Amino acid sequence: MPISKERFAQGITSQQFIDQIEKNRERFEQNLEETTSIFTDEDRAFFKEHPVSIAAIAEDWCTDVVQFLPPIIKLAEEVPSITLRIFLRDQNLDLMDQYLKEGKFRSIPAFVIYDADWNELGHFNERPSEVTQEMAKETLRFAQDNSDLEGIHRTVDNMPPETYAAVRANSAKFRWDNMLRWNRVFIEEIKSIAGGAKVGA
Q: Do residues 178 and 134 lie in contact, with contact meaning Cβ atoms separated by under 8 Å?
């Protein structure tokens, strides 16, 4: 069942979310500062023509939230026709469970988009598939180029701590090196949902 307007209004504002951040604050604020540069005049015009309300389900400990919530916060600041409210996942599992990834994973961030008449246009979970594919390729490349690391070809749950730390450090660097480009991919996916059709179709 869709999120009612009344429940939507109970969500916290962007500033309230930022004020309660306990983990990853520095990276979150860096992304907020840098992500404005990805927006185009076409983006702003698009959302002026397609006013939407966006319910975001998030937690500050999630790396994908740290990456993909800031662009929505900044976009909502720049375009008054976007109304954003944020719900902490672990305090709103009844909402989260309506938008499970693949019908079973409580993956965040989740963004639920409504038009001006409160029709649900669609929702987005976690990260763009293009980003997931690039991350998987980089993980494979790192493993192949660092075959001397003990247990590098094991699952992450079975890697020695030092190897796991190296894999995590490489993945983090790869993510943040590509942050702005991936945020651009993400914004196009949000526009696709908001417009009710695939962008570029």
A: yes
- Nearest-angstrom CA–CA distance, 190 and 120: 13
pLDDT band with cut points at 50, 70 and 90 for residue 156: confident
| 152/56 Cα distance (integer angstroms) | 36
Residue 16 included in any domain: yes
Q: Is residue 132 part of a domain?
A: no
Average of pLDDT values for 123-138? 94
- Amino acid identity at 117: D
Does residue 179 lie in a domain region?
no
Q: How far is CA 171 from the centre of its chain?
A: 17
CA distances to 74, 169, 174 from 150, rounded to whole Å, are: 42, 16, 21
pTM equals 0.90
